[in-house]
């Protein structure tokens, strides 16, 4: 089941989606998503259960009350299992969201339902263990799409005799009785591991793999996709061989008062238990994949890096993009020079920034477009509204209070410099700590933790002071080390020296568009140790990595000056700056 969609029947609005990554076959997900959208537009007076032939795949859909559940399957996948799967997720979706379906005004409102869809996929993918009630298939129809213009329907009924149903039921009962008795015996025992990792994102997998290299027993608990949110989780399939010696446990984890972790009724215990559950997120990448045309008009709400990156990408692809921010600058947690310079550059670009603006109401019109009222006026004819105002840690369902793990008011787990929580032998890394929500940070912290716990490296820990960060905005932003404000707070204003430069790089020398380049060094002490490097402009992402190494090694401004500059490059500016000034 490569694609699953749940839509509202009356208007075809997509409510939830789940996409499987893969590395072979005809996986043009955009094409099949567009076909699904066409089917959703033809739901009025359509049969409640249908199959649709499309190339090497089959669409199957089921209409249940106000929703339509659709999946895309390989032709070899049994139709009865596909319809049972759709009945399952449809009923569960109604159980969870029936009262909210008609109030939804934006697509993909229930994307968190993907977690249940993933569980159902695994259940129905195991064809040998499923027995499906034949009543579900008494009114199936086969539909063939011909160039997506002519649709023909033909009925196809599945008829089972009463004797066959009784025999099927008896066999299932016998199988269930045997396996259930075995499961009861198995679940009465607690399974022990040296390392129990909760969360199959980048950080959890990295830590589990590294621990396994040291010869300890490792189990990884994950209820959804492996790989987390960075770039492509499906790329993890390439590394499947590396986690083959880590036992994968599918399901949701929760702590029990006796200190064990319960998953699907089975208890597990780790000599060391790592929490790496990350944060709740919106699948904005999948929204892009499902778009059949460029969005004509978009409103993005937020001033952080996700909002800035999304707004820049959409605007440069041709969408009329509006960015709504509460204050007067974007990236306000970054160095003041970067925040100001990027805001100015974006003001001169295709993104329309609405400063000191907050949404008061959103109205969906009869034509499907949105009218957004703000404290500054009305933005009309909006096709898509994207909220990028932050994410919350996925810690709520872990029952952390049962084992004494402390969290802050938001739900971030409080840890010390060695990733220890307030509970003995329970640790936490990654986004769930609320610090540096970046995939490379979670990976680095996870690996260092494995070395400390299982390779006798008692002082191994991640230094969070010099984390290099890049924002793929337009223009690019790169930063490592302390901001000017942080340096003043740490060393005092008299001990800080600032070097700044602003110019137009040679790349834009002969073009009408003059994209700025801003560079800033922050130095501390008499020897002018470089404690911060901040860049804006083309190539900032590539330049920053090398200078981050220099910063980590404790380089001084004098050592920067002794480096022979490579000409003509933007990077040479960082080793030729003169005229340092004290902060204002």
From TrEMBL:
<keyword id="KW-1133">Transmembrane helix</keyword>
<keyword id="KW-0285">Flavoprotein</keyword>
<dbReference type="InterPro" id="IPR010908">
    <property type="entry name" value="Longin_dom"/>
</dbReference>
<keyword id="KW-0812">Transmembrane</keyword>
<comment type="similarity">
    <text>Belongs to the class-I pyridine nucleotide-disulfide oxidoreductase family.</text>
</comment>
<dbReference type="GO" id="GO:0006749">
    <property type="term" value="P:glutathione metabolic process"/>
</dbReference>
<keyword id="KW-1015">Disulfide bond</keyword>
<comment type="similarity">
    <text>Belongs to the synaptobrevin family.</text>
</comment>
<keyword id="KW-0274">FAD</keyword>
<dbReference type="InterPro" id="IPR004099">
    <property type="entry name" value="Pyr_nucl-diS_OxRdtase_dimer"/>
</dbReference>
<dbReference type="GO" id="GO:0005829">
    <property type="term" value="C:cytosol"/>
</dbReference>
<dbReference type="GO" id="GO:0050660">
    <property type="term" value="F:flavin adenine dinucleotide binding"/>
</dbReference>
<dbReference type="GO" id="GO:0004362">
    <property type="term" value="F:glutathione-disulfide reductase (NADPH) activity"/>
</dbReference>
<dbReference type="GO" id="GO:0045454">
    <property type="term" value="P:cell redox homeostasis"/>
</dbReference>
<keyword id="KW-0560">Oxidoreductase</keyword>
<dbReference type="InterPro" id="IPR016156">
    <property type="entry name" value="FAD/NAD-linked_Rdtase_dimer_sf"/>
</dbReference>
<dbReference type="InterPro" id="IPR011012">
    <property type="entry name" value="Longin-like_dom_sf"/>
</dbReference>
<keyword id="KW-0472">Membrane</keyword>
<feature type="transmembrane region" description="Helical">
    <location>
        <begin position="301"/>
        <end position="319"/>
    </location>
</feature>
<feature type="domain" description="Longin">
    <location>
        <begin position="5"/>
        <end position="117"/>
    </location>
</feature>
<dbReference type="GO" id="GO:0005739">
    <property type="term" value="C:mitochondrion"/>
</dbReference>
<dbReference type="InterPro" id="IPR046952">
    <property type="entry name" value="GSHR/TRXR-like"/>
</dbReference>
<dbReference type="InterPro" id="IPR023753">
    <property type="entry name" value="FAD/NAD-binding_dom"/>
</dbReference>
<dbReference type="Pfam" id="PF07992">
    <property type="entry name" value="Pyr_redox_2"/>
</dbReference>
<dbReference type="GO" id="GO:0016020">
    <property type="term" value="C:membrane"/>
</dbReference>
<dbReference type="Pfam" id="PF02852">
    <property type="entry name" value="Pyr_redox_dim"/>
</dbReference>
<dbReference type="InterPro" id="IPR036188">
    <property type="entry name" value="FAD/NAD-bd_sf"/>
</dbReference>
<keyword id="KW-0676">Redox-active center</keyword>
<feature type="transmembrane region" description="Helical">
    <location>
        <begin position="274"/>
        <end position="295"/>
    </location>
</feature>
<dbReference type="Pfam" id="PF13774">
    <property type="entry name" value="Longin"/>
</dbReference>
<protein>
    <submittedName>
        <fullName>Glutathione-disulfide reductase</fullName>
    </submittedName>
</protein>
<dbReference type="GO" id="GO:0034599">
    <property type="term" value="P:cellular response to oxidative stress"/>
</dbReference>
């Amino acid at each position: 089941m490569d694609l699953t969609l749940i839509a509202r029947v009356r208007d075809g609005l997509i409510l939830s989606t789940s996409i499987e990554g893969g590395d072979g076959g005809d996986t043009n997900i955009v094409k099949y998503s567009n076909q699904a959208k066409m089917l959703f537009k033809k739901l009025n007076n359509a049969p409640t259960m249908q199959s649709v032939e499309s190339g090497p795949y089959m669409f199957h859909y089921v209409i249940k009350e106000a929703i339509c559940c659709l999946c895309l399957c390989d032709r070899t996948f049994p139709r009865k299992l596909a319809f049972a799967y759709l009945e399952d997720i449809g009923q569960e979706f109604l159980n969870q969201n029936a009262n909210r379906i008609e109030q939804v005004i934006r697509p993909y409102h229930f994307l968190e339902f993907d977690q249940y869809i993933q569980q159902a996929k695994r259940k129905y993918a195991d064809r040998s263990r499923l027995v499906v009630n034949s009543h579900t298939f008494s009114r199936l129809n086969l539909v063939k799409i011909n160039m997506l213009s002519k649709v023909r329907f033909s009925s196809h009924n599945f008829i089972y005799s009463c004797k066959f149903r009784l025999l099927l039921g008896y066999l299932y009962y016998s199988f269930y009785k045997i396996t259930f008795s075995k499961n009861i015996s198995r679940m009465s025992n607690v399974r022990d591991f040296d390392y129990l990792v909760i969360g199959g994102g980048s950080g959890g997998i990295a830590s589990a793999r590294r621990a396994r290299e040291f010869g300890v027993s490792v189990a990884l608990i994950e209820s959804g996709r492996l790989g987390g949110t960075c770039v492509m989780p499906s790329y993890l399939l390439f590394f499947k061989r590396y986690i083959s010696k880590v036992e994968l446990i599918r399901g949701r984890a929760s702590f029990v008062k006796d200190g064990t972790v319960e998953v699907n009724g089975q208890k597990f215990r780790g000599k060391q238990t790592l929490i790496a559950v990350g944060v709740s997120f919106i699948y904005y990448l999948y929204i892009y994949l499902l778009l059949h045309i460029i969005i004509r008009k978009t409103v993005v709400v937020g001033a952080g890096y996700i909002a800035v990156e999304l707004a820049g990408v959409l605007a440069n692809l041709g969408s009329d993009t509006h960015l709504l921010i509460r204050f007067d600058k974007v990236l306000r947690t970054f160095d003041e020079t970067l925040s100001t310079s990027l805001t100015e550059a974006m003001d001169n670009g295709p993104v329309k920034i609405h400063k000191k603006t907050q949404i008061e109401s959103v109205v969906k019109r009869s034509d499907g477009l949105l009218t957004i009222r703000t404290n500054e006026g009305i933005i009309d004819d909006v096709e898509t509204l994207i909220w990028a105002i932050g994410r919350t840690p996925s810690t709520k369902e872990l029952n952390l209070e049962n084992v004494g793990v402390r969290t802050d008011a938001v739900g971030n787990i409080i840890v010390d410099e060695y990733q220890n929580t307030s509970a003995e032998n329970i640790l936490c890394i990654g986004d769930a700590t609320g610090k540096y929500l970046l995939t490379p940070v979670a990976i680095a912290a996870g690996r260092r933790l494995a070395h400390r716990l299982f390779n006798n490296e008692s002082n191994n820990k991640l230094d969070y002071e010099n984390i290099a960060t890049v924002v793929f905005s337009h223009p690019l932003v790169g930063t490592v080390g302390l901001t000017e404000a942080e340096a003043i707070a740490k060393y005092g204003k008299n001990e800080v020296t600032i070097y700044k430069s602003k110019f137009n790089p040679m790349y834009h020398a002969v073009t009408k568009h003059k994209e700025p380049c801003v560079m800033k060094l922050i130095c501390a002490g008499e020897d002018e140790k470089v404690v911060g490097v901040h860049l804006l402009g083309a190539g900032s992402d590539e330049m920053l990595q090398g200078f981050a190494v220099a910063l980590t090694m404790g380089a001084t401004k004098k050592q920067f000056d002794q480096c022979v500059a490579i000409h003509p490059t933007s990077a040479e500016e960082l080793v030729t700056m003169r005229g340092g000034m004290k902060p204002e």
